[in-house]
Amino acid sequence: MESGALGKTYEPGEVIVRQGEVGDCMFVIQSGRVEVVHTGDGREVQLAIRGEGDFFGEMSVFEREVRMATVRALDPVRVLTVDKKNLLKRFREDPSLAFRIVENMSHRIRELSERVASAGTTE
Amino acid sequence: MARRAGLEISLDIFERRDFSTVGPGGCNMCGGIISESLVQTLATEGINLPPTVVERGIDSYVLHMDEGSVHIETPLHEKRIGSVHRGAGPRGLREKKWGSFDGHLLDLAVGNGANLIRGRVDEIVLSDGKPTLGVKGGEASSYDLLTVATGVNTSTLKIIENLGIPYRSPKTTATYISEYYIGNDLVEKTLGSSMHVFLLAMDRVEFAAIIPKGDFISVCILGHGIDDKVFHSFLGHPSVRTCFPEGWAPPPDHCHCAPRMNVRGAVQPYGDRIVFIGDAGASRLYKDGIGAAYRTAKAAANTAVFEGISSAAFKKHYAPACRRLEFDNSIGKAVFLVTKELQRRGFERRAVLTMTAKEQLKASGRRMSTVLWDTFTGSSSYREIFIRSLHPFFLGTLFRELAAALVSRADGWTVPSPKKSPPAEVSQ
Ligand SMILES: Cc1cc2nc3c(=O)[nH]c(=O)nc-3n(C[C@H](O)[C@H](O)[C@H](O)COP(=O)(O)OP(=O)(O)OC[C@H]3O[C@@H](n4cnc5c(N)ncnc54)[C@H](O)[C@@H]3O)c2cc1C
User: Do the beta carbons of residue B84 and residue B32 sit within 8 Å?
Assistant: First the structure.
């Protein structure tokens, strides 16, 4: 069955995306899990864990900033790369394709806002 | 999309095939390559193709010409092209290991609320302007919108042409597909994760491909008037033989078919309350037909959800998508004319192979490789390929290689590459 596995496989601990690098693609997880970590002041903070069907690195499709976090494999993970160029061409032809990404980003903003709010209440 | 737009719709899908059936009854007759761009677009939509459906992930191409072969790798060394069987598998399948691609998509549609009606639509009428459909032995139902996604291998389009609407079905050409069981291990050893494409100096053959797929090898030939004779002379060609185990001969009983392929889009693929998508409307010339079906389907759905279902709405918002495909195909025809020209003369073939092989040794500047990759994979439009091939650096290198090939001797010439196509050293 593995002959039909699409994407690229990473071993646990392997870095898929490195904070500070310039990105020109986003990734869709086909199987396994990854962790998203941010390093600042020499401290590493885990921001999220993402699993099958989730995407990451989508900010680089919309911005020209460097990657704001590192993404590492937690399990043996299979990830499909989606090129920014291909995606932007498709968005131009079919803007509704961006709905799911926007929906996902909005969901993540909501999640973060809730976390900030609950951190405020616990202080 | 309708759900996101807050639109309540109910969708009936009529399908005559049962995709769990092995052999022609459950198959939509195609090479089964899911292009790099479609794999990415589907993943963005949330449709990931699992290894229970994709029979082989493809990460490279081997281009075969009469003079030799060259291996073209994906820029990312990632498997982003999938080979699938549209049905449960060809006649002669020994063990069901993978599921049908069409069946998988149909299940997803049903899982999202569509209602599947099994049966062949054999009655289509317009009553009070509304399309009314009936399947054999069933009751006819009337609909607000009829989306025709029948492909071109059906007589249903004739029924629709007789409805008194301006629609005229696409121009098609005959093709040929054969499926040979050789077992997964031998497929791995002979073809690996590469699709093999052939630009040979053979009459009537425009383009041919050999595709590794689970336990099978699929052979597809596209061109004009492909018949048994052309097919068998193709199979006997020395470069084609390298893709099969040594001593292999086509078994007398194997799954094969001669489906028709869209080579020019339909006339007015829309009307009031009716729209034609996929092959029945417009497609891409010789590549990524499934991707084109997806794109026309999305364009029609966007129009219906956001603009309406009148002929005027489809004309304004859907027809441009079909025209874009058709315009690109006209450039594609020119690209294939040039390709055909390159197939004709030995020194030209040697120049193309040399240029590609030299590029494969470098990490960047792979212009010919990219042009060939995009031509075969459907990753870019023909327009982009054409523009890229006008780059002075591309033309300069090509002319240099052409001049070198013209003055060099043809006998004893080999492709200057350390990475040739995997040798077929395995015997059955
Ligand atoms: C030799 C060959 C090789 C090809 N290789 C590739 C390839 O590798 N990759 C690629 O992307 N494209 C390829 N194509 C093109 C691809 O097959 C088509 O572009 C694609 O299948 C079009 O999809 P569609 O949904 O429009 O039609 P189809 O795939 O033909 O599907 C039409 C569906 O409608 C159903 N139907 C028809 N009439 C009725 C009726 N009256 N009632 C109920 N149901 C009905 C059929 O059962 C079928 O399921 C190839 C084509 C050929 C001929």
Answer: yes
3-class state of residue A100 by DSSP? helix
One digit per residue, the tens of pLDDT, for chain A of length 123 reads 688 999 999 999 999 999 999 999 999 999 999 999 999 988 999 999 999 999 999 998 888 889 999 999 999 999 999 999 889 999 999 999 999 899 889 998 998 899 888 887 766
Prediction ipTM score: 0.93
B44, B52, B79 ranked by CB distance to A101: nearest? B44
Helix (H, G, I), strand (E, B) or coil at A106: helix
Structural domain for A64, as ranges = 2-121
What are the pLDDT digits (tens) for B24-44?
999 999 999 999 999 999 999
CA distance B45 to chain A (A): 7
Does B290 contact ligand 1 (Cβ within 6 A)? Answer: yes
Q: How many domains does chain A have?
A: 1
Distance from CA of A74 to the nearest CA of B (A): 20
- The ligand 1 atom at the shortest distance from the C-alpha of residue B290 is 11
Whole-model pTM? 0.93
Q: Is B205 in the pocket of ligand 1 (CB under 6 A)?
A: no
Please judge whether A4 and B4 are an interchain contact, meaning their C-beta atoms are less than 8 angstroms apart.
Answer: no
CATH of the domain at A21: 2.60.120.10
Question: How many Å lie between the centroid of ligand 1 and the Cα of residue B206?
Answer: 20
